[in-house]
Amino acid sequence: MSTDQIAPEREQAQPAPLRTPAAPRTRIPSRLVGRAPAPAPGTVLHSVSGATAVMLGLVAIGAALHEPVLIAPLAASAAIVHSVPGLPLAQPRSVIAGHLLCAAVGYAGLAAFGSSPWVAAVAAGLALAVMTLARTPHSPACATAVVIVLRTPDPRTFVPLLAGAALLIVLAGCALSRARRTGTRYPQYWW
């Protein structure tokens, strides 16, 4: 007997359920939630406060030197160092050397082709290639190349500020890692 023939018999034997408007689902389907572990509330507070303190310090230094353009790439760097300190792109080698290599690519592109969004896009791609070859992966550093091409900052003030800011992010990551009793120690390696 097919299921088509069984279904009508069941409908006759059981009373029809009352139809009510469908209630909104309160649970999110598991395939949308993902399998990423939820961080502990203390870890989130620690990471956010550390990254915010570092960024406030960098903004103060940038404002004093009239170079606030570094905020975007360095904010991303601080977020990586303070929220996922175990990743290779958060390690000091990647943070400091990545930004400096990308600055060199940005200034080279600026010198060769001038300032334009097209040059900035190519500089970002080349900066990624240079970091990959140098084994210093740090994605926010690509934005440093873009900032240089689009804003044309004076390298005499910009490069020392960039190097000092990257070092400050790393040192703050070290200090905050030592202040925490649990969690991933930063850095995993220096060079």
Keywords:
mainly alpha
Largest sheet: none
Overall pLDDT: 81
Number of helical stretches of at least 4 residues:
8
Low-confidence blocks of residues: none
The chain-level structural class is mainly alpha
Portion of residues in helices?
55-70%
Molecular shape: globular
Radius of gyration: 26 Å
Helix and strand element order: HHHHHHHH
Strand content: under 5%
Distance between the amino and carboxyl termini = 72 Å
What is the number of strand segments? 0
Please characterize this protein's 3D structure:
- Helix 4 runs parallel beside helix 8.
- The protein is an all-alpha fold and 191 residues long.
- It contains eight helices and no strands.
- The longest helix is centred in the C-terminal third of the chain and has 25 residues.
Set down the secondary structure blueprint.
Layout: H1 3-13, H2 30-33, H3 41-64, H4 71-83, H5 92-113, H6 117-133, H7 140-151, H8 155-179
Helix pairs in contact: 3-4, 3-8, 4-7, 4-8, 5-6, 5-7, 5-8, 6-7
Provide a concise account of the structure shown:
This protein has 191 residues and is mainly alpha-helical. It has helices spanning 3-13, 30-33, 41-64, 71-83, 92-113, 117-133, 140-151, 155-179. The mean pLDDT is 81.
